[in-house]
Structure formats: structure tokens, C-alpha cells
Amino acid sequence: MFETTQMKKTVFIAFSALLTWAACKPSTKNTQETPAQDTQAATTPVVEQPVDTAGQKEQLVEITTAAGKIVLKLYNETPQHRDNFIKLVKDGYYTDLLFHRVIKGFMIQGGDPDSKTAKAGQQLGAGDIGYTIPAEINNKLIHKKGALAAARTENPEKRSSGCQFYIVQGQHTNPDDLQNMAYYRGYQYTPEQLKAYEKGGAPSLDGQYTVFGEVVSGLNVVDAIANQSVDGFSRPFGDIRFTIKLKD
Questions:
Q1: Which of 203, 213, 210 minimizes the C-alpha distance to 162?
Q2: How far apart are CA 111 and CA 71, in angstroms?
Q3: In degrees, to the nearest 5, what angle opens at C-alpha 93 toward C-alphas 55 and 81?
Q4: In the list 78, 134, 239, 244, which could disulfide-bond 44, CB 3.0-4.6 Å?
């Protein structure tokens, strides 16, 4: 489906750091290094319960790729992430960027500004937009298949990258394992959440990263991208470019 080119494989980072954009820095640097802008204190506390958004229409966005289109809705319960994403889309930021990290059975990640002009084989993931967003983590918004969430560096406030995001492909998790996982975190999955996870997801990320939207159509496209062959940095051998626009 995508054009492929052979690139040299290299050793990649540990699986536990897959969703931090700082962890994608070249191996000559400390992979846990936190960019300077992440040293600031969070100005907004983590959201524990959704705000009242009754009657408020959810904004749709459309991602166009060579594999097809993905339509997502942005949650009103995470207004800072929603508004930032909408602003970047309107500004044309998400034009001709790459899904630079793809992990089958887990997620596809994009939004690194350096990916726009990246050379073949170049390691990506360390690019940022110069600011972060306070966490809006909500136990009701889970990492089910198709969840849209924000990548981040290792930082105590769990502040999100201002630009990098990922879409969950995930895989099946045993219901008992899900309940045990929830127990140790001090909350319980609802029957609806357990049913959603039957279709796939990444529950180990719940409570750690801000989920701020979900796919409403195009899960087959997410699967197609997630199934691409990748190099040692989890970058697809064939570039997978995307452009995002607002959808009425």
C-alpha cells in the first residue's frame, strides 16, 4: 500500500518509553532528558471528572493519508487539548507531517515538526513546538482502540506535548487483568469500558497520558498504518505522510 525503501536498522529505546517524545532523541544523549519547557510547574490540576458539556457539539477532524482517511472527534471534556489541536489544524501545522513511530498492536504516533523535511532513516520524535499542555487525565476517557492521546516527556505533572499525538491500535486484554490493573490504580472499569477493550486498546496507559478524542471512522486505516514494516526506530520504511483539516 505504501512505497518502501531499505534503511539501516538501529537499536531502539525500551518499550516502557514508547510514548515519550524526548525518548526518541539520538542515543548519544540521555533518553530520559526533559526539554527545558517541561521544567515549568503545571498551571492546571489533573482533571478527575469531566466538565459539563451537555449540548456542546464535538469538533471533528479528518486525517488524510495515502492509506485513506481517519475521522476523529475531539472531546469537550479536555478543552485545553481540544483547543490547542484545533488551533494547530487551523494554522496548517499538521500538513505533510509523518507518522514517524508505528508499533503494531500498540499505536501510531505523529506530529513531530522535524518530520516534515526528514531524510530517509533519520530518527524522529524529539521535535516540539516550544510549549506543553497541562494534563487533563480523566478516568472516563480510556485508551480503547481508536483513542487519540497526547505524547509527553517524563515529567511529574504529566504535561503533554504541544504537538505530538498518537492513535491507539492496541490489542485484546484479559478482563481479569484489566480489573486487577484498575484495582491497583484505585478505580474500577465500567462494563462499557470493559466491552470497549474487547475490541483492543492499551489500558496500561490509562491514567498516564491525556486521551482527548477518538476515531469515529477509519479504524481500518489505523490498522493499515500500524501494520507497516518499520526500522529500529519504529519508523516505517516507507514514509506515511498525513494532513489534518477540520471537518464540519
A1: 210
A2: 16
A3: 35
A4: 134
Q: How far apart are CA 69 and CA 119, in angstroms?
A: 25
Q: Each residue's pLDDT tens digit in the chain (248 positions)?
A: 444 333 322 222 223 334 555 433 333 333 222 222 233 333 333 333 444 455 689 999 999 999 999 999 999 999 999 999 999 999 999 999 999 999 999 999 999 999 999 999 999 999 999 999 999 999 999 999 999 999 999 999 999 999 999 999 999 888 888 888 888 888 888 989 988 998 899 999 999 999 999 999 999 999 999 999 999 999 999 999 999 999 98
Cell digits of residue 237: 520504511
Distance CA(233)–CA(46), nearest Å, equals 31
The structure's pTM equals 0.80
- Cα separation of 231 and 238, whole Å? 10
